[in-house]
Design goal:
With 311 residues, this protein is mostly helical. The chain has 15 helices and three strands. Helices cover 59% and strands 5% of the residues.
Length: 311
């Protein structure tokens, strides 16, 4: 199998715009990138992919793990750095209504679904000041959820209207690596997909808890996604999951367990067995960790286990 081993740095591959004289070289690069996702010479299914990955250079494997093959092109997710107007910045909202940054971010997510204009946002802020953030969040979440459900009923036949002056930009976009086209820059891949699929991606990006996200992940198996759509969906899913896990607030018991894991050396295996018994209720502790706290605990444990494996 030919390896992706051209004399280019990763930044050159990902970001170079190139001129017409470089077109031929970039076509070669694109072909090599596509071959990274073709595991037929190494076997079937997961075993073939695993053998192929072992035979790759470090750069090849980074591209395989972080990118997706979509419509014959290799695309990578990137942060969408399009600027927000001041009136839809979480920092501005938090200051105006005297709430936490996390609560302000949730408000912005809801208002984006509602296609809120600047005038609407000012009215919302006045309403929140009068009634309080505790009532505002459930209210706007209910409105946004109801609108999202209505949009999903028959999006193909829905009456189209002119959009507002501004809608909050997506957190992530996708760009093609190894090949560049002005038309692709003007119209992102996600915008070329059916409306039901765009709604599905928005639903993942706006999901505010791990249980709801897990439900979306289970439902996806009932949908007829092609390989490209599935690849992008799971990338968005994992990005959102990682963000939600980072925002989990740990209680005293969970914090104490994580501290024990960090200090564990030769007794890591016995500590893991004890943690399992606590989670199953076989060993009683005061205020045991909640379901999502266990996600963080076991993630910390596995990371510590990997460190020990390389010592």
């Amino acid at each position: 199998m030919r390896k992706f081993n051209l004399n280019l740095s990763l930044s050159e591959i990902l970001n170079s715009a190139g001129s017409s004289r470089d077109r031929e070289r970039k076509e070669i690069i694109m072909e090599d990138l596509r071959l990274l996702f073709d595991h037929t010479e190494y076997g079937e299914a997961y075993e073939g992919m695993a053998r192929h990955a072992l035979d790759m250079t470090q750069l090849d494997r980074m591209i395989l793990e972080d990118c997706n093959l979509v419509s014959g092109k290799v695309v990578a997710p990137h942060l969408n750095t399009k600027s927000y107007p001041f009136w839809l910045c979480p920092e501005y909202i938090a200051k105006r209504v005297d709430c936490s940054l996390r609560e302000a971010t949730n408000l912005v997510d809801c208002w984006s679904i509602l296609d809120a204009t600047q005038k609407m946002v000012e009215r919302f802020i006045s309403w929140i000041k009068a009634r309080g953030i505790e009532k505002a969040l459930p209210y706007f979440e209910k409105l946004a959820t109801a609108l999202a459900e209505v949009e999903a009923i028959d999006s193909e036949d829905a009456t189209e209207t002119d959009g507002p002056t501004y809608t909050a930009p997506d957190l992530y976009q996708y760009h093609t690596i190894g090949e560049y086209d002005d038309e692709d820059d003007n119209k992102p891949w996600i915008k070329c997909q059916p409306k039901w699929y765009q709604f599905l991606i928005r639903k993942v990006r706006n999901c505010n808890n791990l249980d709801s996200l897990a439900s979306i992940g289970k439902e996806i198996y009932q949908k007829n996604l092609n390989r490209d759509q599935a690849g992008v969906f799971w990338t968005e899913y994992n990005l959102r999951k990682a963000k939600l896990e980072r925002n989990i607030k740990l209680g005293p018991a969970a914090k104490a367990m994580i501290q024990r894991i960090a200090k564990a050396n030769g007794n890591l295996a016995s500590l893991g067995a004890w943690l399992y018994k606590v989670q199953q209720g076989k060993v009683k502790v005061a205020n045991p960790p909640k379901k999502h706290e266990w996600t963080v605990i076991w993630k910390t444990y596995n990371q510590r286990k990997e460190v020990h494996a390389h010592v």
